[in-house]
């Protein structure tokens, strides 16, 4: 079996360290130089020849900077004769650009997938992609994990006898239904229409939520506009309490403060797929490092990964 060699870009080194601690393998250093003309140069500072190389890099702000870092690391690993190079990408920011829903717009998810493969990616390990079709944009194998088990383990600590899981839109309904099955609760969903990056309208909530303890489940929270709009509809239905859960807690601008300030929101739960924000009294951050480490171990030894990401 080839030796495993793990590197991390500058996007989330804390998560990379935690993953390597679970694997019992060192996180090897990467030297990133910036020239006077703003061009980046990457040097992987460990032997890659005939090794099973893993590059850990979520695409988080500044996204373009971290993407170029990742592409340069891939090129460096290929030039160093790595036997196989797996991109470990806990958050794929371009996954939201997955369809042509207006004239003359790019499909960034497909383009960036092609760039990674062209740069030398042999395989991709991702966590909670924005939509299922993004998986098909890659021409190399993709192992697509989710964080529902970690989230469910957290919420099982509460009394769920009067709880319903609510998806903000129909696109996330399958994940919400699976999450509800893990918790043994009912499920409901919002009827959402998006007009721009920060303007959404949820016209109604489909399902029984009146008087319920609600868990709002979404794949990511950036500006928080969808959750706030959904909360308006839930308030009209007289829900008893609200907890918010997501995999990718981006919380751009003042989104976390705005959500935390809402009196009906008792808790906001996210994972550390992206660097966590400054903590608040209502924020809980769960680690997905062990799940990613186990997936990397199974990939390395040629074992099945399906048990870790199956949604059946």
Strand order of the largest sheet: 11-10-9-12-13-14-15
H and E order: EHEEEEHEHEEHEHEEEHEHEEHH
Q: What's the Cα radius of gyration?
A: 20 Å
By CATH reckoning, the class of the largest domain would read: Alpha Beta
Biggest β-sheet strands, sense, barrel: 7 strands, mixed
The separation of the N and C termini measures 32 Å
If helices are DSSP runs of H or I spanning 4 or more residues, what is the number of helices?
9
Overall domain count:
2
Describe the overall structure.
The protein contains 9 helices and 15 strands. By secondary structure, the chain is of the alpha/beta class. Helix 1 packs across helix 8 and helix 4 packs across helix 5. The two termini are 32 Å apart. The radius of gyration is 20 Å and the shape is globular. The mean pLDDT is 93. Strand 10 and strand 11 (199-206) form a beta hairpin. It has helices at 13-23, 63-79, 108-119, 148-155, 173-183, 225-236, 255-260, 289-301, 306-309, and strands at residues 4-8, 27-28, 30-34, 40-44, 52-56, 84-89, 123-127, 142-145, 163-167, 186-196, 199-206, 213-221, 241-249, 265-271, 283-286. It has 2 domains: 4-145 and 289-308, Rossmann fold (3-Layer(aba) Sandwich), CATH 3.40.50; 148-281, 3-Layer(aba) Sandwich (Rossmann fold), CATH 3.40.50.2020. It is 30% helix and 29% strand. It has a 7-stranded mixed beta sheet. Strands 2-1-5-6-7-8 form a 6-stranded parallel beta sheet, sandwiched between helices. InterPro entries: Pribosyltran_N, PRTase-like, PRTase_dom, Rib-P_diPkinase. This is ribose-phosphate diphosphokinase. It catalyses: D-ribose 5-phosphate + ATP = 5-phospho-alpha-D-ribose 1-diphosphate + AMP + H(+).
């Amino acid at each position: 079996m080839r030796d495993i060699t793990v590197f991390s870009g500058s996007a989330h080194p804390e998560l990379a360290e935690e993953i390597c601690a679970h694997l019992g393998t060192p996180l090897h250093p990467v030297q990133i130089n910036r020239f006077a003309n703003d061009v980046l140069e990457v040097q992987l500072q460990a032997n890659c020849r005939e090794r099973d190389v893993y590059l850990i890099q979520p695409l988080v702000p500044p996204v373009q900077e971290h993407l170029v870092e990742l592409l340069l690391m891939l090129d460096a690993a290929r030039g160093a004769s790595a036997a196989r190079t797996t991109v470990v990408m806990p958050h794929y920011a371009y996954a939201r650009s997955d369809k042509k829903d207006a004239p003359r717009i790019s499909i960034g998810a497909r383009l960036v997938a092609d760039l990674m493969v062209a740069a030398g990616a042999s395989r991709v390990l991702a966590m909670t992609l924005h939509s299922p079709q993004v998986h098909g944009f890659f021409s190399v194998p993709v192992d697509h994990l989710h964080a529902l088990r970690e989230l469910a383990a957290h919420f099982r600590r509460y009394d769920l006898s009067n709880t319903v899981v609510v998806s903000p839109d129909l696109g996330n309904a399958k994940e919400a239904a699976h999450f509800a099955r893990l918790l043994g609760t009912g499920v409901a969903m919002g009827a959402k229409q998006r007009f721009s990056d920060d303007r959404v309208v949820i016209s109604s909530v489909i399902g029984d939520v009146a008087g319920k303890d609600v868990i709002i489940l979404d794949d990511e929270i950036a500006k928080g506009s969808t959750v706030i709009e959904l909360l308006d509809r839930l308030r009209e239905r007289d829900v008893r309490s609200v907890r918010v859960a997501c995999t990718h807690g981006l919380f751009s601008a003042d989104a976390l403060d705005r959500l935390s300030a809402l009196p009906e929101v008792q808790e906001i739960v996210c994972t550390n797929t992206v660097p966590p924000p400054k903590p608040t009294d209502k924020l809980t951050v769960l680690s997905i490092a062990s799940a990613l480490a186990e997936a990397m171990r199974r990939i390395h030894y040629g074992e099945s990964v399906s048990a870790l990401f199956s949604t059946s």
